[in-house]
Amino acid sequence: MGKTFTRPESLAETHTHYCPGCTHGVIHRLIAEVIDELGIRGRTVGIAPVGCAVLAYNYFTFDFQEAAHGRAPAMATGIKRVRPDLMVFTYQGDGDLASIGMGEIVHAANRGEKFTTIFVNNTVYGMTGGQMAPTTMPGQKTTTSPFGRNVEDCGMPIKMAELLSALETTGYITRQTVIRPKYIVKAKKAIKKAFTYQMENRCFSMVELVSTCPTNWGMSPIDAVKWTEEKLLPYYKLGEYKEPA
Predict the structure, then answer these.
(1) Long-range contacts of 3-10 (CB under 8 A, 24+ apart)
(2) Which of 66, 91, 134, 228 has its Cβ near the most Cβ atoms within 10 Å?
(3) For residue range 179-234, what is the model confidence (pLDDT) as tens digits?
(4) Which residue ranges form the domains of the chain, and what is each CATH number?
């Protein structure tokens, strides 16, 4: 019996360290498939964050760099400006991008840097113990908000897609999710569109992916998917937020 699918060349043949039910593995495969389909593996450079994906360079078969916490956009800016022929993308979580790296991503987008950002939003700091993040939902319990996020003290969750799409600079901004097959298909199309815009040297692009974190949410993978659909997606609405003219 023949194989129904094969491992993308851009994806390393190794086990990942991610928890059961985590969506990082799905996102990694989508990125690898897109890079293979576009034929750009030989000139792609990824930038790993500080967070659950800190070891992402072990899971791909093209060049990778490691950035300090939140500084992936700065590193991507340097690489892309020195080598504009390269395809450069950052891979960042919500703590990395929307907290310590907020200034970095806002100014990179506002300058119109020609790289791509894959933004994984699972509403918590995953690697460091499940602390409250800028994207944590109102009332959501974390290790640093054991009684739930109090918006009077901490403000509302930050919507990064909406924030960056409000900038006057040309860009491609979208929010998708990868929690079910019907969403995964759209997420792959968004990632491919973002890389294509970079290949055409047209604009900065960010693909936000609403994701699960069963371990830090204290849920089973199935319950985490249900909670995402019931609680996260009504707030973090999916769709295309900005397209280049």
Answers:
(1) 8/32, 8/33, 8/35, 8/36, 9/36, 9/41, 9/61, 10/35, 10/36, 10/41, 10/44, 10/60, 10/61, 10/62
(2) 91
(3) 999 999 999 999 999 999 999 999 999 999 999 999 999 999 999 999 999 999 99
(4) 24-242 (3.40.50.970)
